[in-house]
């Protein structure tokens, strides 16, 4: 493969680490970067790039500019979710859409467990009570234990599998999985049971959502699905806000049709001031921080650089989200 050009058009950091450009260029790849503000600016800057790099959740790569990226063979989206990239259209044009989910797997899995415990043990409520001068061990008593429970995981990719591993020591009775794309080996290795969505909804004590936001997963959990849950169910979402119909969930929580929820992601971020979810004591909310920890960006940078180097050497990236793509380049398996 000839010398490639990589254009970084956006990054969720104050600056690009000093080590990034020389490491890319040492692999024989030309590197340029510009913090673009609009899709048209990104197109002008990266039109002749072989690899376009979006470090974070920027929406610069639109459906309008994909057909004009004549030289582009790959788009790298640092992080896990690729809902800010028109993957279907990129696939149509032979453009690989790579991501770096390994950078977020452990922190999001740990945050998922943290939200679950916070809701089940009612930790935020009791924290507020103590701070208000009320020391009362009989008010808002925790109702459930993870031990002996049935947990449902919607989606069984890297993060969900990491969650399942961390649930096992709590002594959960059964982990149900709904994922139409999961292979049998992953089910056996994960010691989980693959079921359809209605069974998972009706049998789970706790439900945790780990599916990407796609056209077919938008409002995957809506009023119909919520009506199939136990009234004692706890819902955790650390994937994308719009996978869940937030209004339907808020109404169910207010009316007691769902017992509690822990949400790191919302349909509107930040939420509107009058959002019902903000008014409910049986909801624990965090501001899309699941993947964050001190130094969390280091993993994004490193894995993205490694992806660029792999592509420059004619190798398929470690992770990409459009396996059906017919790439513009000839690539070898890893």
Automatic annotation (TrEMBL):
Keyword Oxidoreductase: yes
Alphabetically ordered keywords of this record: NAD, Oxidoreductase, Pyruvate
Domain D-isomer specific 2-hydroxyacid dehydrogenase NAD-binding per the UniProt entry, residue ranges: 113-290
PROSITE patterns on file: D_2_HYDROXYACID_DH_2 (PS00670), D_2_HYDROXYACID_DH_3 (PS00671)
CDD domains, A to Z: CtBP_dh
GO molecular function: hydroxypyruvate reductase [NAD(P)H] activity; NAD binding; transcription corepressor activity
Keyword Oxidoreductase in record: yes
EC number from the UniProt entry: 1.1.1.81
InterPro entries for this protein: CtBP, D-2-hydroxyacid_DH, D-isomer_DH_CS, D-isomer_DH_NAD-bd, NAD(P)-bd_dom_sf
Family stated for the protein in its record: Belongs to the D-isomer specific 2-hydroxyacid dehydrogenase family.
Protein name per the record: Hydroxypyruvate reductase
């Amino acid at each position: 493969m000839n010398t490639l050009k990589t254009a970084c058009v956006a990054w969720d950091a104050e600056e690009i680490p000093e080590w990034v450009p020389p490491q890319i260029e040492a692999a024989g790849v030309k590197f340029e970067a510009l913090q673009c503000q609009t899709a048209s600016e990104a197109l002008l800057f990266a039109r002749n790039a072989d690899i376009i790099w979006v470090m974070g959740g920027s929406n610069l790569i639109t459906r309008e500019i994909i057909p004009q990226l004549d030289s582009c063979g790959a788009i790298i989206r640092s992080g896990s979710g690729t809902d800010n990239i028109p993957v279907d259209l990129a696939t149509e044009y032979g453009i690989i859409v790579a991501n770096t989910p390994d950078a977020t797997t452990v922190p999001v899995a740990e945050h998922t467990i943290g939200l679950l415990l916070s809701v089940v043990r009612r930790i935020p409520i009791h924290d507020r009570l103590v701070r208000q001068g009320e020391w009362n061990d009989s008010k808002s008593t925790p109702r459930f234990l993870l031990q002996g429970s049935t947990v449902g995981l919607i989606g069984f990719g890297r993060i969900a599998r990491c969650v399942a591993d961390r649930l096992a020591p709590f002594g959960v009775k059964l982990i149900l999985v709904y994922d139409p794309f999961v292979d049998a080996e992953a089910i056996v290795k994960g010691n989980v049971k693959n079921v359809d969505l209605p069974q998972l909804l009706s049998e789970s004590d706790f439900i945790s959502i780990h599916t990407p936001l796609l056209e077919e997963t938008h409002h995957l959990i809506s009023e119909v699905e919520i009506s199939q849950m136990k009234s004692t169910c706890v819902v955790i979402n650390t994937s994308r806000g719009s996978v869940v119909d937030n209004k339907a969930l808020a109404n169910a929580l207010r009316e007691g049709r769902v017992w509690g929820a822990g949400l790191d992601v919302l349909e509107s971020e930040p939420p509107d001031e009058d959002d019902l979810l903000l008014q409910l004591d049986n909801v624990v909310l965090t501001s899309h921080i699941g993947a964050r920890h001190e130094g969390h960006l280091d993993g994004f940078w490193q894995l993205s650089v490694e992806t660029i180097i792999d592509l420059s050497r004619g190798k398929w990236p470690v992770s990409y989200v459009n396996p059906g793509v017919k790439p513009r380049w000839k690539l070898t398996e890893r």
